[in-house]
Amino acid sequence: MDGMSRDHDMSGMAGAMPPSSMNSGMHGMHRKKMMMHMTFFWGTQTEVLFDGWPGRRTGMYVVSLVFVFVLSFLVEWLSHSRLLKRGSINIPAGTFQTLLYAIRVGLSYLVMLALMSYNGGVFLVAVAGHAFGYLIFGSRVFNKPGHNAVKGFDHHPMTC
């Protein structure tokens, strides 16, 4: 008709096949893959940060929630603590401040990546970790009056 062969070449179809069928068909793997959620869901069977973690055990899910809570708490600690003394030498102090900033940003990205699991429990513990960290380190509850104040603000800007 149009000069094309009726032989069907299936070599280009491998890229169109879903990854799960490619793995089970080509490599003989029959492991059931977890579906990646794109909306919030509730449940303990999720993956947080690493492939296969926390797995299907509820205890490991709780460990992953504690891990995300601690990460978000540490972000708040680094955001609201002053680890450098006034009058420090500029180059070493600036280098140390930059290192702390990089650590804070890295931890923040880890929390964000954990949230991309779209698990409701992970979301709640991340918010709770940030809120608890702010309560301890950023709010007036445990700080002396004026300790973190900067010209009309209740708390200092987020610096290390």
Describe the fold and architecture.
This protein has helices spanning 19-26, 58-80, 90-115, 120-137; strands at residues 46-47, 54-55. A two-stranded antiparallel ribbon has the order 1-2. The protein is mainly α.
Which SSEs are present, and which pair or pack?
Blueprint (H helix, E strand, L loop, with lengths): L18 H8 L19 E2 L6 E2 L2 H23 L9 H26 L4 H18 L23
Antiparallel strand pairs: 1-2
Helix pairs in contact: 2-3, 2-4
Subcellular location: Membrane
InterPro entries: Cop_transporter
Keywords: Copper, Copper transport, Ion transport, Membrane, Transmembrane, Transmembrane helix, Transport
Number of helices, counting only DSSP H or I runs of 4 residues or more: 4
* Class derived from helix and strand content: mainly alpha
**Uncertain regions: pLDDT < 50 for 5+ in a row?**
8-28, 149-153
Q: Please trace the helix and strand order, writing H or E for each element.
A: HEEHHH
Gap from first CA to last CA: 72 Å
Question: How many distinct beta strands?
Answer: 2
